[in-house]
Known about the structure:
single chain, 152 residues, alpha+beta, 3 domains, two-stranded antiparallel ribbon, 6 strands, 41% helix, elongated
Amino acid sequence: MSRSKKTRICANPECRKEFHPSHKNQLYCSIQCSHAKVNYIKKCVICGKEFTARSKLQKFCSKKCKIQNMLNKREKYTKTCPHCGKVFECYAPAQIYCSNRCCTLDRREKMKKRQKKRTLAYENESTTSNGILSLEELESTGIYVLLNEFEG
Length: 152
């Protein structure tokens, strides 16, 4: 295989030698340089503390600073809880309630209202017809017509 005519500088900051790469993705002049532990001394973007980075791309000294950076970037929404009326801030635009407790209590109340409506509708239905359908009601359901055709 022919060597490329271009020369590159070794990506290891301690080496920085010029070399002829044997393939287009080669970054280091030797295997030793590619396996060498390189320490990058950087300054944390959030707290300003100096730290030893494991890669060129590392920007934060700790997970705490990384999370803080993520929270700083996120947009805050101010909303009012429909259950308790409390004003709260959240990061998710779809969040409705201020807490899991309010969400659960509100869901229970809605379920009780639905159940009450169903029982009232059932009671109204059973009191009007006493469970026995008239001939007109049977014909409107279509069941009576089907039975008539089957017998006839």
